[in-house]
Design brief:
With about 100 residues, the protein is an alpha+beta fold. The chain has helices at about 5-10, 15-20, 35-40, 45-50, 75-95; strands spanning about 25, 30-35, 55, 65.
Length: about 100
């Protein structure tokens, strides 16, 4: 079910925004989640999420895998665009809350 993806795409949201809410399945446990959810939950304490990590972590089983598992990421360029976009979303959220991220 990709209701948010379809609704956002229909309203003209950017490729990066729509791709970040499209559901993907964990190859390890089958849990279905979006990139936004993964970064907000499983990657929350990791400074790499703030700086554009090209991996995604499952919030259920904690396994990590490349962004290329997403249907919206077909090559290294799209992987970088998507990881930079979602890092910007996370950065804006953390900055708005006054949270400082140190590079570990």
């Amino acid at each position: 079910m990709n209701g948010y993806f379809s609704a956002m795409q229909g309203k003209g949201f950017s490729y990066e925004s729509t791709g970040s809410v499209r559901k993907m399945d964990c190859p390890n446990c089958g849990f279905s989640f979006s990139l936004v959810y993964a970064r907000a939950v499983a990657c929350r304490g990791c400074s790499k999420a703030y700086y554009g990590c090209s991996k995604v972590r499952c919030a259920r089983c904690d396994s990590e895998f490349p962004l290329t598992i997403s249907k919206d990421v077909a090559n290294p360029y799209q992987e970088r665009v998507m990881s930079n976009h979602i890092a910007g979303v996370i950065r804006n959220d953390m900055d708005s809350k006054g949270i400082t991220v140190l590079n570990r």
